[in-house]
C-alpha cells in the first residue's frame, strides 16, 4: 500500500493505515489469502485439535488411574462389606456396629499406655469404657505398617462378625478411618488361658481346666460343623483362648481364619499358624483343613492336662513334641503320669484319661487317623467310649 495521497489528507492516511494493519494482524480478512494457505490453516487446526484431544484423553486416563489406585486402597478399608449376607446382618441391627475413631480414642484415654492389655505381632489391645452404655471393652489397634495386620483385620470383620456362639469372643464393632484399623470386642476379665496355665502362684484347678476344654471343643464344633460354612480357625492355641469372669472359655483372634464349603473341607494357602501347634501335614502340603484345626486342638488338650508347652526339653537336652512324649507314656500304660504335677493328683481320673486320650487322637500324624470335632467332643463329654490308640512312631515337630 504505497499510494500517495494529498498532504491535506495526512491525518486520514494515518488512520487508514492503522485500520489496515489492525485487520491484517488480527482479523486477516481485509486481504484475501491464497487457497493453499487456507488448506494449510485447516490442516493446522485439525492437527491442533487432534493433539488437544489426545492430551485431554491422556490427562483423563491419568486422573482416572490415579483416583482408581487411590480408591482401591480405600475400598480395602472403607468397602469391606460386599458380602450381602453380612450387610443384611448389619442392617438388622444384630451385628457389630461401626464406631467413629474419636469414640474409641475417648474410650481408651487416647490409647494410653496405662490401659494397654497386651501387644501382639500386628498391633496392641487396649481396655476401653463406653460411658453412655456403661460397657467395658477390649479394643485392638492394628499396626499401620503391617500388611498382614491389615489382612487379619479384614478377615476378622468379615468372618467373626457373622458368628454367634457362647464360646466365641463377641465382636462388638469396628472402625477404619484416618489411617486406623480398630476392632472392638467384649472385654474378657480373666485374660487369656496361657497366662493362667503357667501362673506359678495361682494354679488352675482341674475342674476349671475341664470346663475350658469343653468350651473350646464346643466352639470348634460350631465352627466346623454347625455353622452354614466350615470356618477354619488356623491358629488355635492357649493365647487365643480368652476367659470370662467365670473362667468360661471363648475362642478369639480370627485373623487367620478362612471359610470353606462343608463339601470341600480344605483351603490352599500360605503357611499360617504358630510353631508347636501347626499340623505337620499342613506344613508339607500347604493345605489347611478341619484336620489341621483338630491337630491344634489336640495339642491344646495335652497342654491343659500336662501343664507343659508344646515343645518339651528332656533332662538330657533332647527336644521332643509334647504329643510324642505323652504318647510314649501312654504306650507304657502310664498316661496319667503325664498329668500336671502342680495339680498334686487332685483331678477326676476319668476326665483326665479322656482329655489325654483325645489329645493324642487329635495329634495323630496322619490326618485320616484323627477324629472329627464331633467325635472328639463326644468322648470328652462321656457320650462315646475311649478311642483305641495304637502305638505311634516319632512325630515331626509342628
Distance between the termini: 102 Å
Count of spatially separate domains: 2
Task: Spell out the helices and strands N to C.
Answer: HHHEHEEEHEEHHEEEEEHEHEEHHH
- The total of helices stands at 12
Second-tier CATH architecture of the largest domain = Orthogonal Bundle
* CA-based shape: elongated
Helix percent reads: 40-55%
- The CATH class of the largest domain, by name, is Mainly Alpha
Strand order of the largest sheet: 1-5-6-4-3-2
Name of the CATH superfamily of the largest domain = Transferase(Phosphotransferase) domain 1
The radius of gyration over CA amounts to 36 Å
Query: Which ranges are low-confidence, i.e. pLDDT below 50, for 5 or more consecutive residues?
Result: 1-31, 68-87, 89-93
From the 3D structure, determine the CATH topology of the largest domain: Transferase(Phosphotransferase), domain 1
Return the structural class: alpha+beta
Strand percentage lies at: 15-25%
The description of the largest β-sheet is: 6 strands, mixed
Overall mean pLDDT:
79
- The total strand number stands at 14
Amino acid at each position: 500500500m504505497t499510494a500517495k495521497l494529498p498532504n491535506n489528507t495526512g491525518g486520514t492516511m494515518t488512520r487508514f493505515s492503522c485500520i489496515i494493519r489492525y485487520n491484517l494482524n488480527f482479523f486477516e480478512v481485509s486481504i484475501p489469502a491464497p487457497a493453499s494457505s487456507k488448506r494449510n490453516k485447516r490442516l493446522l487446526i485439525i492437527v491442533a485439535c487432534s493433539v488437544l484431544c489426545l492430551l485431554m484423553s491422556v490427562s483423563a486416563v491419568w486422573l482416572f488411574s490415579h483416583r482408581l489406585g487411590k480408591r482401591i486402597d480405600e475400598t480395602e478399608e472403607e468397602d469391606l462389606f460386599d458380602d450381602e449376607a453380612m450387610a443384611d446382618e448389619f442392617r438388622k441391627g444384630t451385628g457389630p456396629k461401626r464406631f467413629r475413631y474419636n469414640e474409641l480414642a475417648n474410650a481408651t484415654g487416647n490409647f494410653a499406655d496405662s490401659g494397654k492389655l497386651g501387644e501382639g505381632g500386628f498391633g496392641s489391645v487396649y481396655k476401653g469404657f463406653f460411658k453412655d452404655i456403661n460397657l467395658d471393652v477390649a479394643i485392638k489397634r492394628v499396626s499401620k505398617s503391617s500388611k498382614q495386620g491389615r489382612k487379619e483385620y479384614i478377615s476378622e470383620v468379615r468372618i467373626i462378625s457373622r458368628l454367634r456362639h457362647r464360646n466365641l469372643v463377641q465382636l462388638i464393632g469396628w472402625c477404619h478411618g484416618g489411617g486406623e484399623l480398630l476392632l472392638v470386642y467384649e472385654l474378657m476379665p480373666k485374660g487369656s488361658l496361657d497366662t493362667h496355665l503357667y501362673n506359678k502362684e495361682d494354679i488352675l484347678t482341674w475342674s476349671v481346666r475341664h470346663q475350658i476344654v469343653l468350651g473350646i471343643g464346643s466352639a470348634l464344633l460350631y465352627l466346623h460343623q454347625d455353622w452354614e460354612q466350615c470356618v477354619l480357625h488356623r491358629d488355635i492355641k492357649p493365647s487365643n483362648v480368652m476367659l470370662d469372669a467365670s473362667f468360661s472359655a471363648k475362642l478369639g483372634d480370627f485373623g487367620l481364619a478362612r471359610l470353606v464349603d462343608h463339601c470341600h473341607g480344605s483351603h490352599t494357602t500360605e503357611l499360617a499358624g504358630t510353631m508347636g501347634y501347626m499340623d505337620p501335614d499342613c506344613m508339607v502340603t500347604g493345605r489347611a483343613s478341619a484336620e489341621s484345626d483338630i491337630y491344634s486342638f489336640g495339642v491344646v488338650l495335652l497342654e491343659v492336662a500336662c501343664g507343659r508347652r508344646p515343645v518339651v526339653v528332656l533332662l538330657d537336652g533332647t527336644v521332643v513334641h509334647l504329643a510324642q512324649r505323652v504318647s510314649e507314656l501312654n504306650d507304657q500304660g502310664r498316661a496319667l503320669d503325664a498329668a500336671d504335677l502342680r495339680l498334686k493328683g487332685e483331678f477326676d481320673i476319668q476326665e483326665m484319661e479322656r482329655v489325654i486320650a483325645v489329645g493324642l487322637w487329635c495329634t495323630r500324624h496322619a490326618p485320616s487317623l484323627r477324629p472329627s470335632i464331633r467325635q472328639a467332643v463326644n468322648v470328652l463329654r462321656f457320650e462315646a467310649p475311649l478311642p483305641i490308640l495304637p502305638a505311634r512312631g516319632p512325630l515331626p515337630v509342628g
